[in-house]
Amino acid sequence: MVGSPEKTQVEPRTVVQVLPWVTTACRLGLAGVLIWAGAAKIGAPALSVQAVEAYELLPEKAAEIVGYVLPVSEIVLGVLLVVGLLTRITAVASGLLMALFVAGIASAWARGLNIDCGCFGGGGQLAPGESPEYLQEILRDLGYIALAAWIVWRAPGRLALDTVLGLAAKRDTGGEEDVNDDDEERH
């Protein structure tokens, strides 16, 4: 009917413009967690090794290597996500790392171990009387996997070196190729 108020709806162009910012928020959120976790462990490598050993999944030498390499890897992945360089590959690696954390925590829970995940520092051992929070830790890490999956799907987002260096297609960044040129603005 002419002159009747129409319901406001989100234009496809608006959604296309917002999605890269959602990806950027996911990138920065996941990056912050990785950098925080790596920074919390890098200053105390012996505790990082001890936390890996607490899971009782790896031989002693392998646990030692993982304990030393993990904090550096987390920081490197986090920095790559912040700057948006090799974004899809970094998101895949981050998601796989989180999946390994989920598997390790689930394994510790299934075997009745009473340990701290060691995710943000600490030696993996809980103080007497403390209980592990395995379910919360698994759910948290599944959330991080979801962030990584979004990034893989919609990489690289805004403010990414991938875009500046030409490593991302225009459609991946919310560029004009992603917008239907036949759309006219509706008022």
Summarize this structure briefly:
By secondary structure, this protein is mainly α.
Give the topology.
Elements: H1 12-42, H2 45-54, H3 60-83, H4 87-110, H5 134-154, H6 161-164
* Mean of residue pLDDT values: 88
Query: Helical stretch count?
Result: 6
State the low-pLDDT regions, or none.
176-187
Radius of gyration: 21 Å
| Residue share in β-strands | under 5%
Q: Helix- and strand-based class?
A: mainly alpha
The geometry reads as elongated
Helix-strand pattern: HHHHHH
What is the CA-CA span between the terminal residues? 15 Å
The portion of residues assigned to helices is 55-70%
Largest sheet, if any?
Answer: none
Number of strands: 0
Kindly describe this structure.
With 187 residues, the chain is mostly helical. It has a domain at 12-43 and 74-106 and 126-178. It is built from six helices and no strands. Helix 1 (12-42) runs antiparallel to helix 3, helix 1 (12-42) packs across helix 5 (134-154) and helix 3 runs antiparallel to helix 4 (87-110). The chain is elongated and about 60 Å long. The model is unreliable at 176-187 (pLDDT under 50).
